[in-house]
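[Q] Does anyone have a clean structure-token version of this?
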Amino acid sequence: MLGFGIFFLFLIEIFLQIYMPAADSPDKIVGWKLKKNFVRNVTQTDSFNNKYEVNFRTNEFGVRTNLKYKNPDLKVLVLGDSFTGGAFASNTEMWFSIFADEVYNSSKLKMQVWASGSGGYSSFQEYLIAKEIKNYFNPDVLILQFCENDYINNYWPIEIDSIGFITFIRRPYYDKSLKNYRVSHPFSFIFNSDIIMSSRIFNITYAILEKYFISSIDYKKYEKNLNKINNPNHESVKLTLEILVKIKKLFKNIPSYITNCNPPEKIKNWNFLVENSKFIPLLKPPYKIQEIKKENKLAVMHKDGGHWSNIGNRIFGKELAKEFLLTNDLNKIKNVNKF
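[A] Here you go.
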């Protein structure tokens, strides 16, 4: 019976690997990252229960692109988390592609966008992946997609007491010597093993447990921890600033922008990051999403309630392009390599 059970689980694993493959693969440095040359078609559902199709794909470097312009006027690198690397809209309908389309419609400026990141990424993981990408992609513009949960994701003393037990074990954390630091845990050798990290049975089962049991128990604790980060002097905010400065220095000779997936709840923290990291803020898009969400006339959110649907991605991308164009002198953008 035991042998039959193991064989049955093996067959299920093979089935899931073929028909429900994970977009991520384990990585010893970054923790996890999008697979190279990965293609998957999925059906998603928005907050109004409308179904829509998503064509998710990465290139040979494990990066999502807008699939346009072999000879662009401008190369744009986007760094982000699940709002950038998650399969909530097709590559061509993701906010970064809509952003490039809208800029072109207004200025005839051809943008080639490389969007890197993955679900659950911290700012430090975005820094680590940026260091890799810099070896084979030379951007003219950087856009950092930020979320306020990055404060927690960057600071393990708080994240250890929050949602996402496995994420906490698998994630590298920043320390001042810039070593790839991971928190020691008795189960680390299990959850960080390639077999467990790659297993669809294990990870799907854990995701279900986390969604319906663990998260419901820990969400209030998570909110409480997030509320603790209420001023720029909090260690997590200062740590996040250090990481953002490191990202900025990687691309010190090009314009660098930062946007937020939601309107900042702690505006003092946001202002502190922007002012001291020297990123140029583009903050109108999340407020536009919030406004439409309150009207409840368009399904701007995915069914999970936390991410944008294909409609939300289109709106965010259009608003980002508007603010980007208002913020910049187009002649300088077109000649970005000259300054």
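[Q] Thanks! Anything notable?
[A] The CA atoms of residues 127 and 246 lie 7 Å apart.
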